[in-house]
Each structure stands twice: as structure tokens, then as C-alpha cells.
Amino acid sequence: MADDESASVFKALADPTRRQILQDLREGELSAGEIASRFPIKGPSVSRHLTILKAAGLVDERRDANRIIYSLVEDRLALCVGEFLSTVCPEQVVLRRRRATRTSKASS
Amino acid sequence: MADDESASVFKALADPTRRQILQDLREGELSAGEIASRFPIKGPSVSRHLTILKAAGLVDERRDANRIIYSLVEDRLALCVGEFLSTVCPEQVVLRRRRATRTSKASS
DNA sequence: TCGCTATGTAGCTATCTGGCTAAATAGCGA
DNA sequence: TCGCTATTTAGCCAGATAGCTACATAGCGA
To answer: Which residues make beta-bridge pairs with A27?
Structure first.
């Protein structure tokens, strides 16, 4: 994980709305509108938060009819932040590597 | 860990200089000047980064003669960020609770 | 006390951030 | 095609951020 790679992830995590979006997506994928309805801010603001999360590689989007569905990118957060935690407090945080999937070797 | 408690931690982690300071302190405590000498920015800028880290509870300071020595607050980062990771990607990040010390019950 | 080193504080500035409204784009169904 | 819904894009603005220089403060030793 390059340093300037994880930088975008830490920037993304700096905002409480974006952290909450990630937690909400933990339960399953959600459309932009469903996400927006959970916050007191307007749609365009949520849209930008989603853009930032996507740019950080933390979420994926996919179109379903005229809606756009967002979902967690499973490994991204753990690899990026977990790697940092492992260097600062390795005794307290254990990274458990996800079982390799058929495509995991090809990725990256 | 209250949400607005961890907010200051995530804000603190948003800056690459501050993340590097935390990693440097992993090797052991350092004076403000020693920390500053590791970065291309001026002393006052480093001083403010240290203030932010201290406000987030991530580092402690202590005076030694006319120097100020900074050190990691051991549990803070793991508890705060690890707790968040545990809710978003619990399969991949395992929080290992630090053994209680004689004073850990009294603290908090 | 004086002078030196180490560090923090005050105050300035450019840039970034995150909110908003208005308008554009994408897809669907009549 | 038209109208409707869902979402993003463009552009504006107030407040936060992070750098800088100049100055103040703290502690030590002559």
C-alpha cells in the first residue's frame, strides 16, 4: 500500500458522514438516494461524499435502472488502515488476511 | 468510545505528517526538536501538529529540562480506530485487548 | 541576571472542505 | 418523444487547515 495511496483513504475517513456511510454499507448495498435519506444534508452533498469514498477505493458503484447502487469494497479499508495500525500498534491490532478468491491474485 | 471522541482522532490521522509522527514515535519517545528535524516544514508547523495529536489523545508530552518529550499513548489509536474497523470489516481486523495494568481500571 | 537553546503562541495567507441551490444527465415507462 | 424520478455536475460561499515569519515563554548554566 503506497503512502499516497492510503492518504486518500485517511482523508476520506476524516469526515463523520463518510464514516457513517461506510458503516451503513456494512449491512448491504444501498442506492445513493437511500444513503442520502439517512442524513440531514442535501443530495448533492451526499453525492460528493460518495465520490470521495469511490476515489479512495472504499466503495464501488453500479447502475441499476435509474438508480446507482453503492457497496463496500471489502478489503480496501482493512488493508489500508490496518496496515498503518499494524506499524503503530502491532500488539493490539491483528490483520487477518482474507481468504484468497479466484480473482484476488489477478487484481492489483 | 463516543463518536465525537473518535472524530478528533480521525481528523488527526488525515494529515500525512501526523501519521508519520505517530510511526516515528513507535520506536520510542522523541523531543519536539527531534521530531521537527525529520520533516521539511518549520518548527511552529510541527508544534501545531503535535498539539493536534495531543488534543486527540494520541500522544503525551513531558518536560525534560528545556525540552519537551513526546510519546505515544499506547491504547488510544488501537481502541479508537480499531473499534471503527471492527464495525466495518470485523472479519479482517481483530482487536487484541491489551493486558490490564495496575492502573488501567482507575483510568478512564 | 544574562544569554543561549528549545519550544510554543500570535497572526497572516493560500488552499481545502463541505454545505447549499440551480441546472444537467441518465434511464424508464406512457 | 415526453415527463418523471434518481443522481451528478457546476458554481458559490463560509469556515477549517496548514504553511510561514515574528515574537514570547521556559529552563539551564555562566
So the answer is: none
Please tell me which of the candidates B10, B23, B82 has its beta carbon nearest to residue A19: B10
Number of residues in chain B: 108
CA angle B66, B36, B13 (to 5 degrees): 115
Chain B contact for A11 (CB, 8 A cutoff):
yes
Write down the pTM of the prediction.
Answer: 0.90
CA of B54 to C1' of D23 (A): 24
Write down the pLDDT at residue B28. Answer: 97
pLDDT tens, residue by residue, B73-91: 989 999 999 899 999 999 8
In this predicted structure, the answer to whether residue B101 has a pLDDT above a threshold of 90 is: no
Q: Where are the alpha helices (DSSP H) in chain A?
A: 3-13, 16-26, 32-36, 43-55, 74-88
Question: With an 8 Å Cβ cutoff, is B19 touching chain A?
Answer: yes
Cα–Cα distance between B38 and B34 in angstroms, integer? 7
